[in-house]
Each structure stands twice: as C-alpha cells, then as structure tokens.
Amino acid sequence: MDCIKTISKLLFAVFFITLFVLQIATLQTVSNNSTATPIKHVVIIILENHSFDNLFGTYPFGYPPIYNNITESVMRPVGINVNIKLPLDNGKLVSPYYANSVILQDPTEGFTAYHRDWNFGLMNGFAEASGIQSLAYVSYEQVPLLWDYAEEYVLADNYFSPSLESTQPNRVNYLTGFPTNITGDNFVTDVLPFNYTIMYQLSQYNISWAYFDYGYQEGQKLPPFPLEVFYGANKYSDHFFNTSVFLQDLKDGNLPSISWVMFTGGGGSDYHYVYDMHPPFNLTIGQINLAYFINSIMESQYWNSTVIFITFDEGGGFYDQVPPPIIPTYGLGYDKFLESLGIYNYTLLGQRIPLIIISPYAKEGWIDNYTMSGYTLLAFIDYNWHLPYLNKIVANSDVQGLLQAFNFSQVPRKPIILTPNNWTYPIPLQYPIHYGYIATIHNIVFFIIVATGF
Question: Model's pTM, two decimal places?
C-alpha cells in the first residue's frame, strides 16, 4: 500500500511539474509571438545629423510658402522662428537663413560645441559655437521626400536624441536605453557588455532581430558600427548583415521582427555615394536611397504589419529652438556635463530631431507632440512584444505618447510609392483631413540651469 501511495504521489508530482512546464512554455510562446498591436515588424532607420528646425522648421507651408487645401489642413508643428537673433563673438546678431541647396556646410560638432549651443537651455549659442552655417534650414525643394512622408503619415515635433553628444554616444544609447560613459567619436571597442542592449533582451525572449548596415561585409572581424563597443557582440554575428540582405529578406519572406537599417558604413568621402544625409553629403542622393528601401517595404508582404521609424542620431549642431529636457536616470548611466556640475542621477537629452512614423496604421498629416526620445523607440518594442521594459528610463519615456500616432482600428492604409518622379510636395492626401492648427506640447518640463559663464 505504501508503495502504491508513493507511486501515486510521484505521478501527481510529475503531472503538476509537466503542467507547470507547459504553462511556462505557453506564456513564452504568447510573449514571443503575440503583440499588443497589429504591428509585427519594426524597422528603425537612423540617419545622420539634422535638427528638427533644420529640416522641418517651416513645415507645412515651406519656403517659398505654399498655401492650399493640403498644407492648410494638415497639423502644424512647433516650427522655427526665422526672426530670432543669435549673437556672434564680435557682438553682431544673426538669424536663421534659408539654404537653397541640397549640400549643406557641416556645423562644428562635438560635446563642447553642442553644450555651448544649448547654453543652459537658452538655445542661443549656435552661431558662436557651431558656426553661422548651423543656422541654415531647408524646405520642401531640398527634402521633398521627407516632407511628403510627414504630410502623409506622422511627424513627431517633440522628439529628442538620447544625449547632447555626437554620433557614437547617441547610436550606442539608442541601443542601451540609457546614457553610457562613451563620449565623443573616438573609436573604442569592447568597453560595454552586450547584455546592456535591447538586442540581447530580444535574443533572451526569442524575438527575431537583425542589424543591417550599408558598409558591413559578411565575415568581417568587427561588428557593424557602433556595435564594436560591446564586448560579446561577436557572439551574435549571425544577426549582422549588409543592407542588401534586408531587401532580400523582404522578397524571401524572412524579415525579422525588429530590423535596424543603417546607411552609415561605406561610401568614403565622396558625397555622391553616401546615403546617411550627413552634411555635406547630397540630400537628394540620400532621399533616393531612402525611398528605395521604403518602397521595398511597402511593396512587400510585410506592409500591413509594419511600422517604419525614420529619425536621426543627433542634431549635428544645426539650430533648433526647443531646449531638450533633463530627465531622471534612476541611478543608471552617466552624464559627463551634469556630473561636472555636481548633478547626479539626471541626464540632458540631445537636440530635438525629426521622427517620421510610417505605417498603414499611422494617422495622416498628424503631428505627434508628446515628449519622446530615442529611448521611446525601445519602449515601443518592449510594449508591443509584452517584454519587461529594458530599464526605468525606457519605461518612463512616454510610449503612450508614441502610440497616439496610430489608429489601430482603421483599415490598413494602402502604400504610397514615392520616387523622384512624383515626390513634388505636396502630394494628394489619402483622406480629407482638417487639422489646420499648430500642435501644442504635452507633458514637457524644461530645466534651465541658472549659471554665470560656461
């Protein structure tokens, strides 16, 4: 009898353990394969070095201004004040100016210049620190593709780069979700663990991802930029590809859930062959390349389940009037400037930059003016795939504000294929919309530090 009881207990134990394992497996399957929205594929495209005012300061009317039933019906962002006066070292005052060219002179870049541009939130140091060329702005004649996408989909006008830093720190922080101790663009390798990244988190939850870089060659020793800063990244080399593979994945039905598509590698110094839009590289060449990739997504089987985030790594020293917020870090990360002032557990976000949100569920002609940053893109991934937020900075980066850009109850919108032959701004709208008012900024707190000198 005791033997029978023992066997019965063992059978019950095995049953409950099996049931528990099945429940865990079911939960993992739900976590891995279900999403909070109809979005099953995220494509993140990060271009180079343009502020919001530099590209969209005069949107939607532009220069010379266009007033018609389209430009007067779309929502208007908080745009540039072309009459503002900024000081030079010699005491003269200068104002933003229209640059009628697709080739812009590169402003002075870097940690010191950017913090002088910012000037403790006064946003009046650009002419002195980054040069008069930093006051240039363009319009629909120089960036018609970007303006057409903004008109047809969603443009965020209160979106900030992760850090008031140059390219490398921002691109690293776009992946970690917090400001790291990497400052400047000095080439460094193996200084941060790969398990800090959103990519590591995705791998832990068996969510597919890939990093596509224009200059990456299969079998090369180092990971694509900036992943070489992470030790352990080489273990994930089967996730690193040239951008040509992204196009092939669209055709073959192999698109991962999360795709980073980058054009920073390769091209050398010839502005005719560099696609990331970094000044002085040709803006038209960059847009032709961008349209090719966007069209490939739209024409693929994945369009109805995809969101495309097009943004920039940093403002590049170009003028923008909106001071970036200072946000809490909850003990994470490092802010070189604030810590030099004895201010800890806070970080200064980078310049206001454009974020274009393209999706069959994106609202048309809408301005998303909730306060967001590069960290919010990570929050969307975690939210959508039911993952724990990567950290508290990501958790508090206003993913709900980003979700306002979508209408998930609408019938998926048909793709809008744009090429140099039809991207003359403005293009016809898919639906009649009548916003016609200036967006107001929600939930934003500016910290201006009162200080003398810099």
Answer: 0.89
